[in-house]
Structure formats: structure tokens, C-alpha cells
Amino acid sequence: MKYRNFQMVPKVIFGRNSFDQLGEILMPQRRNSEAPFIFLVDDVLEQQQEFISRIPVMFQDRIIFINVEEEPKTDQVDAIVKMINEQYGEEPSGIIGIGGGSVMDLTKATALLLTNPGSASDYQGWDLVKRKGVYHVGIPTLSGTGAEVSRTAVLTGPEKKLGINSDYTPFDQVVLDPVLTRGVPKDQWFYTGMDCFIHCVESLEGHFINTFSESYGEKAYEMCTEVYTCQHMSESERQNKLMMASWHGGLSIAYSQVGVAHALSYGLSYELGIHHGVGNCIVFDHLEAYYPEGVQKFREMKEINEIALPKGVCSGLSEAQFDTMIGVALGMEPLWENALGEHWKEKIDEKKIRSLYEKM
Ligand code: NAD
Ligand code: ZN
Questions:
Q1: Would you call 173 helix, strand, or coil by DSSP?
Q2: Which of 16, 127, 255, 302 is a good FRET partner for 292, with 20 to 30 A between their CA atoms?
Q3: How many domains does the chain have?
Q4: Which ligand 1 atom is at minimum distance from the Cα of 103?
Q5: What pLDDT is recorded for position 195?
């Protein structure tokens, strides 16, 4: 047995309005006035002038607003890196991402590609990154994906949707300020929060489960279900708990693996562009055969929060589209092995996956 030597995020600050300490956190990392900090900020925050004015920009620092209508792509990373290289004579002092999972991943990948040659697509896979990236900071404004703590930056490339997984990928610093999640629309709050819930179920119910993952997964499961079922919780407590649930859920899968829902959701995302959170919810609702208790709890939370999931997303798809989706899903081998065990190939096949997709 070879155990993974997991690279943790070395520095994290948690607290309401901890964002206001960002200036002092960055100061010692600033190399000189010519080496800027680049802030990649979800463009949903662009209109929030009061918030934008709190971003501690100095000298040559730059704010770049990022549109996340489509999930991050390798060529988007390449374009940002090219622009930074062309505009500044020096390597930046750091890259700071402020946004949801999409901006977290874009930030991690940009930091790596500033010091590693070629295209982001060259590094999709496991441990292909050879050099430390520039200093990078993650500041989530949406809770659930665990991207703030994970060692991957998930990107859609010309050939595949796959993460840049490496020990250099995790942030050097994370700022967990639950106040920043205040404006998230209800549906999105549910979908991304359920990403965390599903991480916990898939980790805890999987074959790769171990005490390390269990200790984080159980706590995250508990906090997540409280957030989505307890009627008497203050808004600030809800924000605090979901932010820490996301963190713990991310740590839980980091040392185990996700499962059936993520495998099928990757297929939906690759072929139909369906976003990760909502895609996971669409899939998970049909997985009672694999995760009976989890699915029951999920439906209860969906009902309490009056969430309606998109229906019929696979109706009218061509044979070729089904084939692509099934191919992407079945290609996620470690996920199936975690969900169904060593002999997973005897338990799942194209026909079973097709019949699940047809229900969605
Ligand atoms: P997202 O980042 O794609 O954002 C979803 C929507 O919420 C966007 O419209 C965004 O503008 C909006 N939003 C974000 N913060 C907001 C705020 N404070 N107020 C109002 N609106 C806000 O969503 P996500 O679910 O956080 O992330 C999904 C992405 O994360 C996918 O690309 C997925 O592949 C990736 N992911 C990565 C990991 C990882 O470990 N790296 C894990 C899971 C998912
Ligand atoms: Zn996920």
C-alpha cells in the first residue's frame, strides 16, 4: 500500500469580514512596486462598488473581471497568462482569485502557467506540473465545491474536461470570509451546496474511505444537512457553516474519491455544458440504487428549500451524444472503483449508464 502525502493549504484565515485583512496578508508577498498582484474577480461582483473598493490594489496591481457563464477553459487560462506576460516586465507578485469554484480553478491554473511553459492543456492530468507556480490566494464567494482546498484546477480543454492535479496546485493562502457569500441566488446556493453534500456521500459510501476522509466527511455532512434543513438558523450562521462544510468536504474527497454522481455529471457537463453543481443534482436525484440514504436526504432538502431541478435534459439527444456522454462517464475509472469496488467493471456498463441518462 502506497499512501498519498497530501499537500495541505499552508495558510488560511476564517472569519466574518476577514477579507479586510487581505492588504496586510499580501504586503510581505509583494516583491517590489513593479511586480503586481493580479486579482481575478467574478464579474457578478463588478457592480458591487463598495466591495470592489475594499480590494487592496496598489502600484501596478490590476483587477480582471471574469465571466463564468461557461466553466473555465484551458485557452482562457492561456489568454490570461499571455496578457499578463505581455503587459508586465516582471512575474507578478501573486494571483488572487475572488469568486466561486470557476474562479478558484482559473486562478490556480493561471498561477501555474505563469511559471510553466506551454498551454494549460499540457498539464491536464496527474503530477505533470514541474515548477512551483506564482504565489496564489483563493477567496471563495460561493460555498460547496471545495475548490478552495483541493489540489486540482478543473478545466475544459480541447480534448477533455480534466483537472491540473499536482502538489503545486493548492493555494498558498485562503481567505474564508462567509460574508462574501451573501448575494448568491437561492438556486445556485442549493446546487453548489449540494456539490458538497454529494462529495460527503460519495466519499463516506465509497470503497476508498479511511479515517482521515471520514473525520472531515462526517462533519461536513452534518453541517450541510443542518444548513439545508434547519428552519431556525440565522443567515450568518448558515453562511459560516456552509463555508466550513465546503472546506471539510473538499478535504474528505482529497484523501478518498468521488463516485457515481460525479462520473455521470462529468458526461453531462462535457457534452451539454451543464454546470457542475446543477449537473450533480440532476444526476444524484436518480441514484437511489447506489446511495439510498443520501438520495432520500437530498430529496428532503430539495423539498424544504423549494428547489425545482431542470428536467428532460437528455431528451432528444442523438445516439452520438449519448455515446460521448457514456464514454466520458465510464472513463472516470477511479470514481467507479471507489463507488463499486475493485470489480466495478462487472457492475456497471454502457446500457446501465444509458438508462440512467434517459431518466434525466
Ligand atoms: P461558479 O463559480 O461557476 O459560479 C456559479 C454562479 O454563481 C456564477 O453565475 C457566479 O457568477 C455566481 N456567484 C458566485 N459568487 C457569487 C456571489 N457571492 N453572489 C452572487 N453570485 C455569485 O460555481 P461553483 O459551483 O462554485 O463552481 C463550479 C466550478 O467549480 C466548475 O467549473 C467545477 O468544475 C469546479 N469544481 C472544482 C473543484 C475542485 O476541486 N477544483 C471541485 C468541484 C467543482
Ligand atoms: Zn463536485
A1: strand
A2: 255
A3: 2
A4: 2
A5: 98
Residue with CA closest to ligand 1 atom 24: 101
Cell of 54: 475594499
Distance 266 CA to ligand 2 centre (A): 10
Question: Same structural domain for residues 166 and 195?
Answer: no
How high is the pLDDT of residue 160? 81
Packing angle, helices 276-284 and 260-272, rounded to 10? 130
Atom of ligand 1 nearest to the CA of 72: 32
Amino acid identity of residue 27, one-letter, is: M
Q: What spacing in Å lies between the alpha carbon of 335 and ligand 1's midpoint? A: 22
C-alpha grid cell for residue 135?
504565489
Q: How far is CA 115 from CA 84, 88, 146, 167, 208, in A?
A: 12, 14, 25, 15, 34
Tell me what pLDDT residue 158 has: 85
pLDDT digits (tens, 9 = 90+) for 265-312: 999 999 999 999 999 999 999 999 999 999 999 999 999 999 999 999
What is the residue range of 257's domain? 186-358
Whether this model's pTM surpasses 0.70: yes
C-alpha closest to that of 199 among 276, 98, 309:
276
Residues 135 and 232 in one domain: no
List residues near ligand 1 (CB under 6 A). 42, 44, 68, 71-72, 99-103, 105, 141-142, 144-147, 150, 152-154, 180-181, 183-184, 188, 192, 195, 275-277
Instruction: Give the H or E element holding residue 48.
Output: none
Q: How far is CA 137 from the centre of its chain?
A: 15
What CATH number does the domain containing 299 carry? 1.20.1090.10
Whose alpha carbon is nearest atom 25 of ligand 1?
A: 192
Using 50 as the pLDDT threshold, list the residues of the chain that sit under it.
none
Helix (H) or strand (E) holding 216: helix 211-229
